[in-house]
């Protein structure tokens, strides 16, 4: 049995994988695979409509927002956001809370001025910058809710006089958020929503059409809204598996229920990191992520042996990102708490053997 | 048994569907699904490398070209091509052979001047325009090799003094082409290469970096080449299934062998259309597509009954596109000739009953 702590594309529920495999062979008993039906078929339209409905339900998306399933990952959103929301000659405000935030702001520079209003670069992104003033004359404020590489997470969103755009790629559907506080939310599917290959965008309609730019159709949110996420052929299978994952989430009790589980998983793991003399946390405790738990060994000589020790117990994907080192256990929605117990036990056994 | 004549996302080989379903449950026996492994894992890198290698082998891609698996479909290429290849103040030449060519040239207008050097709009795109001069001062000539909606296909590519960019979405891997004759080839996967969700791009390296534009990373071919199609998380599953489909193609004898089969399928079907007094072809015979066979009933009252008659025999997806009407039988690589025989037989039986 494998315990998949990979940072993404990450673990999906076993039940969803079984349903997805069945759909590849024969979708809902129609005698054709989900991979070979038209995106204009009633079958796929049903899938897309249900996926949109589940997003709205599970996140409590209010009226006046559109829900899109696009392609190209969050990295495409790094460019689409300023393309659509940043007027010529305008500026946007970015909080640089990690590598992904940095990539986002670099892409925005292709479209206008970028004001980095806060950064955590001075301490290698081990904390969430909180001490900043949001400039009222910027087109939007860009935030990253969870920093996958360093394991920090915004526990509270700052108040803002301008629309807030948030990259929630690695913690969407893991906890309650108030969508009405945001102008635009985007998230690559491959952590908590489904497989790689589709990107969720939730956008407040009234923000669009104001930047006065000429935007090619595929990069234009309004064209994508008008096409109902089918301006062109959508990534059928990735949307299908996302829909199945959202169904699974709903059946589990939704975001509220999963948030409790996620908090418990994080609590158990951080408690062991803080207690175990061989290990230590990386980030400022108050900013620790409930999705990506980063930790180090006190003695660098223990790093490789512990990785091996863990792998022998079926623990996969805990090697830290190449730019952060150490370990990173990603504990996304689909990871059962039993896998966390297995990791904690491995840490305890390893400590026992290396006293 | 279903006979899938759908125009796309279209039929995939049964063998590929079985392998894909198995990979969703457990990829190559590693105990994890292809949907939940890192794109940086050796397992996925093996998949991507093999996919690129198979593209090069099957199409005979010469040195000096890069092969990319991107997202966003051909529609994203409609914008990326001029973004990368059309200099500020420059112009591009387009042949308007159908609706998709028209969409491509409209997107190019966001980036510069577009000269439509030939169009078949006067006869509702039922022929391939051939009588044109390619302007030597344009940055590139854009062609569409196969027009899915109307069922026409370029049987010979025109000589060009400037680089040729070709949308081969609906006939790539169906016949031999000389890649060296092209500056850039692109194709959405969902006809002959795999499922919806990835787009193949083959680009001559020396054409890049000349347009002197500042291009956001995700839309920049050079950034995608530098990242080896992994500038960001790629559409893992769509690439996996494309790789499996290319393996299947190779095992069948490659493009040369499939081309013979495709020609035979087309011959059998067009012969029946021309012979059967109830049906007639749509396009100029010399420009008929070997991928999308469009036909009409002589008596419009036969249209709905024939559709029903065919559906009762398991024949799926032959309703014509809403902008063309009539029937369209797509006979992509994975469609067995036995399905064509079933359709021909249905046409004959229907004619017999409606004499």
TrEMBL record, chains A, B:
<comment type="pathway">
    <text>Amino-acid biosynthesis; L-serine biosynthesis; L-serine from 3-phospho-D-glycerate: step 2/3.</text>
</comment>
<keyword id="KW-0028">Amino-acid biosynthesis</keyword>
<dbReference type="GO" id="GO:0008615">
    <property type="term" value="P:pyridoxine biosynthetic process"/>
</dbReference>
<comment type="pathway">
    <text>Cofactor biosynthesis; pyridoxine 5'-phosphate biosynthesis; pyridoxine 5'-phosphate from D-erythrose 4-phosphate: step 3/5.</text>
</comment>
<comment type="similarity">
    <text>Belongs to the class-V pyridoxal-phosphate-dependent aminotransferase family. SerC subfamily.</text>
</comment>
<keyword id="KW-0664">Pyridoxine biosynthesis</keyword>
<comment type="function">
    <text>Catalyzes the reversible conversion of 3-phosphohydroxypyruvate to phosphoserine and of 3-hydroxy-2-oxo-4-phosphonooxybutanoate to phosphohydroxythreonine.</text>
</comment>
<dbReference type="InterPro" id="IPR022278">
    <property type="entry name" value="Pser_aminoTfrase"/>
</dbReference>
<feature type="binding site">
    <location>
        <begin position="232"/>
        <end position="233"/>
    </location>
    <ligand>
        <name>pyridoxal 5'-phosphate</name>
    </ligand>
</feature>
<keyword id="KW-0718">Serine biosynthesis</keyword>
<dbReference type="InterPro" id="IPR015424">
    <property type="entry name" value="PyrdxlP-dep_Trfase"/>
</dbReference>
<feature type="domain" description="Aminotransferase class V">
    <location>
        <begin position="4"/>
        <end position="334"/>
    </location>
</feature>
<dbReference type="GO" id="GO:0006564">
    <property type="term" value="P:L-serine biosynthetic process"/>
</dbReference>
<feature type="binding site">
    <location>
        <position position="40"/>
    </location>
    <ligand>
        <name>L-glutamate</name>
    </ligand>
</feature>
<keyword id="KW-0032">Aminotransferase</keyword>
<dbReference type="GO" id="GO:0005737">
    <property type="term" value="C:cytoplasm"/>
</dbReference>
<dbReference type="InterPro" id="IPR020578">
    <property type="entry name" value="Aminotrans_V_PyrdxlP_BS"/>
</dbReference>
<keyword id="KW-0808">Transferase</keyword>
<protein>
    <recommendedName>
        <fullName>Phosphoserine aminotransferase</fullName>
        <ecNumber>2.6.1.52</ecNumber>
    </recommendedName>
</protein>
<dbReference type="GO" id="GO:0004648">
    <property type="term" value="F:O-phospho-L-serine:2-oxoglutarate aminotransferase activity"/>
</dbReference>
<dbReference type="Pfam" id="PF00266">
    <property type="entry name" value="Aminotran_5"/>
</dbReference>
<feature type="binding site">
    <location>
        <position position="167"/>
    </location>
    <ligand>
        <name>pyridoxal 5'-phosphate</name>
    </ligand>
</feature>
<feature type="modified residue" description="N6-(pyridoxal phosphate)lysine">
    <location>
        <position position="191"/>
    </location>
</feature>
<feature type="binding site">
    <location>
        <position position="190"/>
    </location>
    <ligand>
        <name>pyridoxal 5'-phosphate</name>
    </ligand>
</feature>
<dbReference type="InterPro" id="IPR000192">
    <property type="entry name" value="Aminotrans_V_dom"/>
</dbReference>
<comment type="subunit">
    <text>Homodimer.</text>
</comment>
<dbReference type="InterPro" id="IPR015421">
    <property type="entry name" value="PyrdxlP-dep_Trfase_major"/>
</dbReference>
<feature type="binding site">
    <location>
        <position position="100"/>
    </location>
    <ligand>
        <name>pyridoxal 5'-phosphate</name>
    </ligand>
</feature>
<keyword id="KW-0663">Pyridoxal phosphate</keyword>
<feature type="binding site">
    <location>
        <begin position="74"/>
        <end position="75"/>
    </location>
    <ligand>
        <name>pyridoxal 5'-phosphate</name>
    </ligand>
</feature>
<dbReference type="GO" id="GO:0030170">
    <property type="term" value="F:pyridoxal phosphate binding"/>
</dbReference>
<dbReference type="InterPro" id="IPR015422">
    <property type="entry name" value="PyrdxlP-dep_Trfase_small"/>
</dbReference>
<feature type="binding site">
    <location>
        <position position="148"/>
    </location>
    <ligand>
        <name>pyridoxal 5'-phosphate</name>
    </ligand>
</feature>
<keyword id="KW-0963">Cytoplasm</keyword>
């Amino acid at each position: 049995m494998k315990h998949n702590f990979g940072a993404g594309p990450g673990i999906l529920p076993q039940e969803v994988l079984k349903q997805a495999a069945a759909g590849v062979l024969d979708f809902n008993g129609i005698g054709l695979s989900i991979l070979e039906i038209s995106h204009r078929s009633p079958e796929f339209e049903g899938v897309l409509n249900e996926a949109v409905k589940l997003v709205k339900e599970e996140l409590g998306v209010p009226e006046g927002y559109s829900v899109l399933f696009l392609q190209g990952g969050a990295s495409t959103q790094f460019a689409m956001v300023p393309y659509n929301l940043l007027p010529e000659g305008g500026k946007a405000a970015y909080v640089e809370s990690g590598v992904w935030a940095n990539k986002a702001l670099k892409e925005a520079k292709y479209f206008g001025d970028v004001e980095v209003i806060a950064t955590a670069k001075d301490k290698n992104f081990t904390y969430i910058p909180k001490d900043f003033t949001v400039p009222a004359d910027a087109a939007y404020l860009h935030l990253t809710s969870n920093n996958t590489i360093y394991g920090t997470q915004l526990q509270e969103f700052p108040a803002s006089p301008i629309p807030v755009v948030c990259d929630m790629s690695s913690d969407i559907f893991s906890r309650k958020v108030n969508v009405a506080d945001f102008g635009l939310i985007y998230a690559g599917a491959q952590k908590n929503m489904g497989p790689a290959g589709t990107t969720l965008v939730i956008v407040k309609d009234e923000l669009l059409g104001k930047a006065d730019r000429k935007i090619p159709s595929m990069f234009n949110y309004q064209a994508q809204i008008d096409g109902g996420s089918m301006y062109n052929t959508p990534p059928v299978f990735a949307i299908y598996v996302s829909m199945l994952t959202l169904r699974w989430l709903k059946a589990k009790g939704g975001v509220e229920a999963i948030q409790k589980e996620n908090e418990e998983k994080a609590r158990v793991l951080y408690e062991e990191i803080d207690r175990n003399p061989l290990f230590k946390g990386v980030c400022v405790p108050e900013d620790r992520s409930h999705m990506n738990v980063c930790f180090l060994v006190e003695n660098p000589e223990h790093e490789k042996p512990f990785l091996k020790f863990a792998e022998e117990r079926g623990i996969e994907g805990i090697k830290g990102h190449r730019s952060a080192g150490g370990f990173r256990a990603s504990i996304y929605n689909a990871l059962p708490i039993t896998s966390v117990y297995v990791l904690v036990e491995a840490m305890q056994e390893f400590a026992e053997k290396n006293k």
